[in-house]
Each structure stands twice: as C-alpha cells, then as structure tokens.
Amino acid sequence: MTQSGAFPQGMITQVHGRAFTLRGDDIDTDRIIPARYLKCVSFEALGDQVFADDRQELAGAHPFDQPEHVGARILVVNGNFGCGSSREHAPQALMRWGIRAVIGVSFAEIFYGNCLALGIPCATATPDEVVRLQAAVEADPTLEWSLDLERGRCQNERAGDWEVRLDPGAREMLLSGRWDATSQLVAREAELNATLQRLPYLNGFHPL
Question: Where do the domains of the chain lie?
C-alpha cells in the first residue's frame, strides 16, 4: 500500500508526497509538543499545536508555518530526533499535522517505537547524506518525493536518489501491516471470540 494523504493503515510499502526540512540535532519531544498539551482528551487537535513554542518564538518563520510546506508528507531531520520524555503525543502531533514519514540521522528509541505504532516510518541515512538530501529538498519545495520501504530509497527523478535504512524488524512490520495492532485484532476476530467463550468469568462462572 502506498501512503499519500490519509492516515496510515494496512501494509505500507511507499510514502509519496512533498518534503521539507527541520534542521538541528537533539530536537526533543517537549519541543515537538509542549507538555501543557498533554492534558488533551483526544489527539485530534494536536496537529495545530505541533512545535507550538518554537513557532511562537520564530513568529511565522518556523518550517511548520511556511505556506509552501502545507500538505507536505515527508519530514527530513538530523540527529537524535524525538529525544526526551516518552510522550506518544509527539508522533501523534506530527501525524495530525500531516507527516507520514520522517528521515534523519538517528531517532530516540521510544519516539521511533511510537512512530512505528502509528505507521510512520523513521528512515535513517548518514549525516552527510541527510545534509545533501535536506539541501535537495530545500532547493525546490514543490517536488514530489517517494520513500520506498522495500528498496530502501528516497528519490525524486529530478533531484536525486538516496539510500535510506530502516530497522529490519520495523521494516517487516510496516511491509506486512503488523504495525497496526487494531487491524490485527479485527483480522483475528474469530480467534478472539473463541478465546472469550473459553473464559469462565464471562460464561456463568460463579466463585465459591
């Protein structure tokens, strides 16, 4: 399945869309979504608040505020992206804004796992390759890029072709659709119902 605009679901083999960059190492989850927004009842409105403090400080100059980036699907970052506290709100905020894939030098482990649970691939490349990719992305924000998870490539016909890597386990989960726990439960409904029928406390069991 190819991801473009809709929320991820099922098997994910490619992510297509425009890209933009967010430069800087050690961008933590508190910057991605400030702690005061963790009180939200649902994740629905988090997209509007992604990088809220950074965006306020830069008064419209932040990459997430640039009109040419509206609708972009691929974010290209640097090293140790998503470090800090292990809040699932961070990838939720990115996804609600519209991000469907992130490419960088490295990612904090918990952030990486939280992204995988949402079907957001976090691909890596060497520092030099990431800088080159960022320069290509910034040179023309209108270009459409393709992140191919099967081939391990990020490319645009005009701008170039970059090798990217995913952890083998994460790659297999995305390609097979096993990243999506809800779909896995739905697909195994019959087995779940059979298990429920065998549970004594759901079938007339009365303790002594």
Answer: 2-179
* CA nearest neighbour of 9 among 183, 170, 152, 185: 183
User: Do residues 116 and 179 touch, judged by C-beta distance below 8 A?
Assistant: yes
Question: pLDDT tens-digit profile of 74-87?
Answer: 999 999 999 998 88
Q: Which amino acid is at 146?
A: S
Q: Rounded to 5 degrees, what angle do the CA atoms 64, 68, 69 make?
A: 35
154-177 residue pLDDT tens: 999 999 999 999 999 999 999 998
- What's domain 2-179's superfamily in CATH? Aconitase, domain 4 (3.20.19.10)
CA angle at residue 170 from 169 to 172, to 5 degrees? 65
Would you say the pTM of this structure is higher than 0.90? no
